[in-house]
Specification:
Length: about 260
């Protein structure tokens, strides 16, 4: 059985963590499969967005597989980890990346959640960073969550290791929305993907690049960078087509160039 499933649904490539018997826990094969899925989506011009979810209705992702031989191991000769590289790839992805939380999302699963552009969840999902309960700490996840959540909230979650519900995750900025059922969650994301598919691929691509680049700039640095980026965007085929379509009162036909 493949650790990761890929499924084209309309304009999106759905990547499903497929280890439901292990609560979709992370091992080397799962990381390799997700990485391949992202590469596949990026290479296909017909794919406008990527959706990452989990198999079953119990868990989105339980974090690293802590069972003996489960894959929670380190090569100390290497300065980078496979999981860290996975988060880097998600952050660098030029296409919109959405997480659909179908169940429990804890530990390393929170890293997947935090690395995405947007995240939605079913109402009953639980979240948490319980690493301290097994003598560890969510080190790599902290690199992302420190920019998403207020510092005292993050310390609460990381130092207590407590679980919390989707409502708290939404209130603290981890989620964009909550759906009552799995079916409603999928329908909501399908509608979101449909909306994004009508937009300029080059605008989304350059916009994501600019947002990441400006993340740690001062205002003066960021606004200067944005001014230069806006000027460059006017040179794209999509910008010319979009402006022409607006003035001609027609639907634009974007090429992604």
């Amino acid at each position: 059985m493949s650790e990761v499933l890929l499924d084209r649904r309309g304009a999106a490539l759905w990547i499903t963590l497929n280890r439901p018997e292990r609560r979709n826990a992370i091992n080397e094969a799962l990381l390799t499969g997700v990485s391949h899925g992202i590469e596949t989506a990026v290479a296909d011009a017909e794919v406008k967005a990527i959706v990452l979810t989990g198999a079953g209705d119990k868990a989105f992702c339980a974090g690293g597989d802590l069972a003996p031989g489960g894959g929670f191991a380190f090569d100390f000769s290497q300065p980078r980890t496979a999981y860290g590289d996975m988060l880097r790839q998600m952050q660098d992805c030029p296409k919109p990346l959405i997480v659909a939380v179908n169940g429990a999302c804890v530990a390393g699963g929170m890293g997947f959640l935090s690395a995405a552009d947007m995240a939605f969840s079913v109402k009953g999902a639980m979240f948490g960073l319980p690493e301290v309960k097994v003598g560890l700490f969510p080190m790599q996840v902290a690199a992302l969550m420190k920019d998403l959540v207020a510092p005292r909230v993050l310390r609460d979650w990381m130092l207590t290791g407590r679980l919390f519900g989707a409502e708290e995750a939404l209130a603290q900025g981890l989620l964009n929305g909550i759906s009552d059922t799995q079916e409603a969650l999928v329908a909501r994301i399908d509608a979101l993907v449909s909306d994004m598919a009508a937009n300029s691929p080059s605008a989304l691509r350059r916009g994501k690049y600019a947002l990441r680049a400006m993340g740690h700039m001062s205002f003066d640095q960021a606004v200067s960078f944005a001014e230069s980026q806006l000027g460059l965007m006017t040179l794209t085929q999509d910008a010319r087509e979009g402006l022409a379509a607006f003035n001609e009162k027609r639907t634009p036909r974007f090429s992604g160039k």
